[in-house]
Automatic annotation (TrEMBL):
It comes from Cinnamomum micranthum f. kanehirae. The keyword Transmembrane helix applies. One of its GO terms (molecular function) is voltage-gated potassium channel activity. Belongs to the cyclic nucleotide-gated cation channel (TC 1.A.1.5) family. One of its GO terms (cellular component) is membrane. It is a multi-pass membrane protein. It is found in: Endomembrane system; Membrane. Gene3D superfamilies: 1.10.287.70, Helix hairpin bin, Jelly Rolls. The chain crosses the membrane at residues 49-69, 89-106, 138-157, 210-231, 339-357. This is Putative cyclic nucleotide-gated ion channel 5.
Length: 621
């Protein structure tokens, strides 16, 4: 209770002092108030559905004009009850969407006019201010449009189907539908404008936009056809009333079905065909009653048909035909209502036809605007080449490049589209498009993410035709190309430019990047292969020498200890022999070692490539 009283007090203060709570759209999402953002995607979808429901509503209302029908057997005007039930049910369902939209209007925030000076403005989320704004602007129109007056009239007739009710129902439907058509049409116009302002356009595709305006033209034809049918019934009723007044045995109530119980009806029924045929026939030439533009509906028995589909299609065709021709083939009578209807038809046809052609041309031109720009650019290029007297081979190269670029891009400047986006979004798009391509290069594979992002940010798409020299030897290198698709031939005799480019990278101090340089260098690969072979040969020979040394030592120790029982002369000579053999073995071992070292030096004849000094440029700068 306390919370509710505080809410009522805040609403009272807001209405009294005009104080409104305003937030930005991003803050509305975290707000506890159940207020909708006017630019919310769900609300935009609901607004589109509501516009469609409004179009369906103004399409269903003319169906009520088809309810009166002429009964040729009884010569009376009746109401088609099956069509009445169907049309009122459909209209009630559509009005439910209208009521839902009215409820959403009380919960949809709006941009405060005072906050539009800077930025996009703040949203007013005070429910009292929102309700006050809606009640002051569109509530009355929505309330009048959603009133179920036609349903009440028809349901009343269905429960009291007397003869006198046919005339009152027919007149009430004409008056009510015309009255409610004004607010229903007036509500579509601002809602459509608001949807275009928030969403940018009602239809995102060109074909949908063209079909949208074509639908309005067909809807106008449907409305004109329904009015033509109802006015034909009215002219038939006028002729019958005129004939009835000149006949003493006729009462006007006999002209409406449901009065069979009245006195004198049987007498009138027996004579009605002759009396009405003589006064209101459309077969004789000239007819006794000038029906004007409505004679076609009477002579074709359209007003007497209870088959709704055939009757609807015929009236729709009549409306579309005369709306497109601006009513030029209409032969009107002197009846003022008929003349006014014809004038309105011609004026409406002129306006709608101009709007249809203009809007459809605008939407359909958006499909071919790129092609037209290409044609203008190609014509300007041809005039320029002719003015500058370019040779034929250069002209062919220019034409071939323009044609190839058009086939690849269809006139869309991808770089300008990306550059118009915010920086973070542009970086993410560039990273998505180019990061995998850059990482395919071994040089950039091991670099850090920031440097890769900087490289991706500066990449631009480029196209080259066949037999195009991308860069020539001796030209300064000012760009790096990543070949995505195609065939490229590269021939060079110098690498000074590549050395200059490599020296500009300050991130190459990484040992892993240096190893990458060596791994993909042909000179380093050749030297590494030779170095490995020489090392293996040295290892093999050293191993063999060690094995021979162990064998020789084994032979030396295999002589055993000297016997002391030997006589003195033989003992001295034997010791000298042992020392001499050991000296010879050591001398031979030294000779073999020198020979192996000399052969190893002879194997490594290929010089080691000089390593790049990555710190020299840093010390100079």
């Amino acid at each position: 209770m306390k919370k509710g009283s505080e809410g009522l007090k805040s609403i009272g203060r807001s209405l009294r002092f005009g104080v409104s709570r305003a937030v930005f759209p991003e803050d509305l999402k975290v707000s506890e108030k159940k207020i909708f953002d006017p630019q919310d995607k769900i609300l935009l979808t609901l607004n589109k559905l509501f516009i469609i429901s409004c179009i369906l509503a103004v399409s269903v209302d003319p169906l009520l004009f088809y309810l009166p029908v002429v009964d040729l057997d009884s010569n009376c005007i009746d109401i088609d009850k099956n069509l009445a039930i169907t049309s009122t049910t459909v209209r009630t369902v559509i009005d439910v969407f209208y009521v839902i939209h009215m409820f959403l209007q009380f919960r949809t925030a709006y941009i405060a006019p005072s906050s539009r000076v800077f930025g996009r403005g703040e949203l007013v989320i005070d429910s009292a201010q929102i309700a006050k704004r809606y009640l002051r602007r569109y509530f009355i129109i929505d309330f009048l449009a959603v009133l179920p007056l036609p349903q009440i009239v028809i349901w009343r007739f269905l429960h009291r189907s007397n003869g006198s009710d046919v005339l009152s129902t027919k007149d009430a439907l004409l008056f009510i539908v015309l009255l409610q058509y004004i607010p229903r049409f007036l509500r579509i116009i601002p809602l459509n404008s608001e949807l275009k302002r928030t969403a940018g356009a009602f239809a995102e595709s060109a074909w949908a936009g063209a079909a949208y305006y074509l639908l309005w033209y067909i809807l106008a034809s449907h409305i004109i056809g329904a009015f033509w049918y109802l006015f034909a019934i009215e002219r038939e009723d006028t002729c019958w009333n005129s004939a009835c007044k000149s006949t003493p045995s006729c009462k006007t109530d006999f002209l409406y079905c449901g009065n069979q119980h009245m006195d004198g009806f049987e007498t009138w029924k027996n004579n009605s065909s002759v009396i009405l045929g003589n006064n209101c026939s459309t077969d004789s030439d000239p007819p006794p009653f000038d029906f004007g533009i409505f004679a076609q509906a009477l002579s074709s028995k359209t007003v007497a048909s209870r088959q709704f589909v055939s009757k609807f299609c015929y009236c729709l065709w009549w409306g579309l035909q005369n709306l497109s021709t601006l009513g030029q083939g209409l032969q009107t009578s002197t009846y003022s209502g008929e003349v006014i209807f014809s004038i309105a038809l011609a004026t409406l046809g002129l306006v709608l036809f101009a709007l249809l052609i203009g809007n459809m041309q605008t939407y359909l031109q958006s499909l071919t605007i790129r092609l037209e720009e290409m044609r203008v650019k190609r014509r300007d290029s041809e005039q320029w080449m002719h003015h500058r007297l370019l040779p034929q081979d250069l002209r062919e190269r220019v034409r071939r490049y323009d044609q190839y670029k058009w086939l690849e891009t269809r006139g869309v400047d991808e770089e300008s589209l990306v550059q118009s986006l915010p920086k973070d979004l542009r970086r993410d798009i560039k990273r998505h498009l180019c990061l995998a391509l850059v990482r395919r290069v071994p040089l950039f594979e091991n670099m850090d993410e920031r440097l890769l992002d900087a490289i991706c940010e500066r990449l631009k798409p480029s196209l080259y035709t066949e037999n195009t020299y991308i860069v020539r030897e001796g030209d300064p290198v000012d760009e790096m190309l990543f070949i995505i698709r195609g065939r490229l031939e590269s021939v060079t005799t110098d690498a000074e430019e590549l050395k200059f480019v490599a020296s500009q990278f300050r991130r190459l101090h990484s040992r892993q990047v240096q190893h990458t340089f060596r791994f993909y260098s042909q000179q380093w690969r050749t030297w590494a292969a030779c170095f490995i072979q020489a090392a293996w040969r040295r290892y093999s020979k050293r191993k063999n020498a060690e094995m021979r040394h162990r064998e020789e030592e084994g032979e030396d120790t295999g002589l055993g200890p000297v016997d002391n029982s030997v006589v003195g002369g033989s003992t001295a000579s034997l010791g000298a022999t042992i020392y001499a053999s050991r000296f010879a073995a050591n001398a031979l071992r030294g000779v073999h070692r020198l020979r192996n070292m000399k052969s190893a030096r002879e194997l490594v004849t290929l010089q080691k490539p000089p390593e790049p000094d990555f710190t020299a440029d840093d010390s100079e700068t």
